[in-house]
Amino acid sequence: MSEVIIGSVLSALSTGLGALVILFMSGSVTHRWRDILLAFTAGIMMAASTMGLIPEALNNGGFVQLTVGVFLGVLTLTLLEKNIPHIDLQHSKKGIEFDEKAMLIIAAITLHNIPEGLSVGVSYASNTEDTGNLIAFAIGLQNAPEGFLVALFLINQKINKFTAFIIATLTGAIEIVTGLLGYYLTSYVDFLVPYGLSFAAGAMLFIIYKELIPESHGDGNERTATYSFIIGLLFMIFLIDIF
To answer: I need a surface site. Which of 111, 181, 216, 234 has the fewest CB within 10 A?
Structure first.
């Protein structure tokens, strides 16, 4: 139990670690670098879901449980996206006042963090001891640039640096709640473990393909973002191989 709490808290607080950089910046960040960071996080998430969560789901269950869980994750994120007002970090709409826009961005990041927290919780409930630590590390690794981008957006909306840092850090807090929820559900009801793992994988794959890749490829930086995605993927596979 203590491990899942520590893992969930550390992975969630990594959002604040990334946002911390913003306090020491004096210049601006180009759109190209933002696309590189988005693609890098997408590569990390892709490796974590396909090389970590999905194999573990198969080990704990089978292909049927994997298929059901993945589609449940995709369906859940689809419904959340359609019913919770939000806008994407890179594609803000004209005519939206600051307060509304900021809240919509926070809602979008919260949507991203729900499956990430669940993936940490259910990974600690799986039969493989190191899976929880691996997934918590992977999620924390991709949370850092995400926190940086959120803080950067808020600063561009004329929020002072310290307030932007605090808000960005708080967006990761939902991962602690969903992490504990995922752990409790799957650790006390054993047959839910493969469904929980594959649910988290499906939700993460939805975010990768629906949000992160399009956002990193929509402003003329497709080739650079593709390289960044592959580097993130290989970096995470390297870490999985070490574990």
So the answer is: 234
